[in-house]
Predict the structure.
Amino acid sequence: MEMQFLAYAQMRKMTAVRTGDMQEALALSPSQERELLSRLSRAGIIARVRRGLYLVPDYLPPGGEWTPDEATVLNTIMKDVSGRYQICGLNAFNRYGYDEQVPARVYAYNDKVSGERTIGVITLNLIKVNRRRLGDTERVRTWDGQTVFYSSRTRALVDAVYDWARFGTLPRAYKWIRDDLRAGRVKPDKLVDATLKFGDVGTIRRMGALLEGEGVDEAILERLERPLRPTSATIPLVPRKPKRGSLSKRWGVIVNDTI
């Protein structure tokens, strides 16, 4: 029965199977189909995404045990919930050369699902955000022809400042931004666009202090400054470090680390 299942799925080029798909094709009752899918999943021949949804290999590898790749898992989950996503955080930082460490899991902003999912050997950290926080992405083709979406280089830098607590990126992110600005890999106006669209007040203030220190054109700084309201409250350039250093009155930022 297992071989009939795989032969049928491969003949139809099915990459995912749902409960009910195999009952008529293999003359199975609902209980027989459930048992077959459960047995194949326990054996590592197919991968369970959720109850009633399984991923199926194109071919059975030597040894019989199979696990899907990251792109297949992520695209299947997002298609199942009709969601949008973009790979972000540690995966984006590695992609653009900011961090050499290859992440052990996939981080993805999305508009539907929150929490950790493990499918086969792939672990996803799904971060649910407001749909307005999705965007500024790059479409990437994988080795097997699939399409995945990554945060762009500019967006990744903004997230490194905005989501510093999740990804542990400050103060390292300031060096990434400085280096990219000086090398021309990112443009100040594009960085400001992304900060205004995807950042918060703290991100705007920290980015303003950094860009002013880099001698960015005043017109660009004024555009970044425009949404800020006057305040006497200050924030540190580097959170979780003592608030000791010079004060940038324009941005209300205590420069407690070398920019």
Notes: The mean pLDDT is 94.
